[in-house]
Write a structure and sequence with these properties.
The protein has 312 residues and is mainly alpha-helical. Helices cover 38% and strands 4% of the residues. The radius of gyration is 19 Å and the shape is globular.
Length: 312
């Protein structure tokens, strides 16, 4: 998002990095993954995973590189890394959660997850996952849904479940987004009404939240388009005529994100990649410092998603 201006220490994890512990298996890094998300998925702490690969717990992962996943020891007392600003890490389960494979072979889809990324993480193929769950291999996943990793098809009498997070306590004055799961067409329609490419807005919405409005990040970013509180103030003051938009409303949230994209496209001469980078990192930061490595990965994801949503 535009207020994420964190300077991240980038440490390239080389293929075949030396491990300091015996590996149970090798994991190939998927786009958007971090040490914290991989550790959580495999029932480890960040420090355990970092030590097994001879790297710092603050290291940022590079898509396509490999990590040695050590055998689980049950000791997760080491503190975990929660400093990453990527949307996928904000929704990653806490490190003390059990590995999905050890809880009946189920995996809860996080915003931005793809079948290829999940398949790479768990040593299977896209076709096997799609077949086991009755999914389109080229389709998008619903954030919050639980998919089978065991190879056993999902029973028709037991449909894929979607977990809706409990809304924050509105009595504290915090965000209280409506628990809605919108569609790509919902996002695209609002984008077209406001002069923004439908496929670009859909790609941003899916990357940020998986089209789930009932999502609040650790930094307070809210809703389908995951807009930070400070950015909401800017949108309502400079991009919207009264009355102001409500960040809790799914439709207003989408419109706010679309208006922000419209402004970024105007400032970048219609450059979708730069607009996406500005949406994530902040345009001024991108212009002054260039894209950080996590921003570049975010942009790559958005550009790939835009093509899947019918963009050029």
């Amino acid at each position: 998002m535009t207020t994420r201006k964190l300077l991240l220490l980038v440490v390239i994890v080389a293929l075949g990095a030396p491990a300091t512990a015996s590996a149970a298996f090798v994991h190939v890094i998927a786009p958007g993954e971090s040490l914290s998300s991989v550790a959580a998925a495999d029932g480890l702490s960040v420090d355990q995973l970092a030590a097994a690969n001879g790297i710092s717990a603050e290291s940022q992962l590079i898509a396509g590189s490999s990590l040695q996943i050590p055998p689980q020891t049950g000791d997760l007392s080491a503190p975990s890394d929660t400093s990453s600003a990527s949307s996928s890490d904000e929704s990653a389960p806490a490190p003390e959660s059990a590995s999905p494979a050890s809880t009946g072979g189920g995996y809860t889809v996080a915003p931005g997850d793809t079948l290829s990324g999940i398949a790479a993480r768990y040593g299977t193929t896209v076709d096997q996952l799609a077949s086991a769950n009755g999914l389109d291999p080229a389709g998008l996943l619903l954030a919050g849904a639980t998919i089978s990793l065991s190879g056993a098809p999902v029973s028709s009498s037991e449909p894929v479940s979607v977990s809706v997070p409990s809304p924050p306590d509105s009595s504290s004055g915090g965000p209280d987004p409506t628990p809605e799961q919108v569609s790509a067409s919902d996002v695209g329609a609002i984008a077209q009404q406001n002069g923004v490419s439908a496929s670009l807005a859909e790609a941003i919405g899916y990357q940020e939240s998986g089209f789930n409005n009932d999502l609040v990040s650790s930094t307070g970013a809210i809703g389908v388009m995951q807009i930070e509180p400070g950015t909401w103030n800017d949108i309502n003051q400079t991009l919207v005529s009264p009355p102001p938009l409500s960040p809790d409303s799914a439709s207003d949230n989408i419109r706010g994100g679309v208006l922000l994209l419209h402004s970024l496209l105007d400032q970048t001469g219609g450059d979708s990649a730069m607009a996406a980078a500005g949406y994530y990192q902040g345009l001024q930061s991108v212009q002054e410092h260039g894209m950080y490595s996590d921003t570049q990965q975010y942009v790559n994801n958005v550009m790939a998603l835009q093509q899947r949503f019918g963009g050029q």
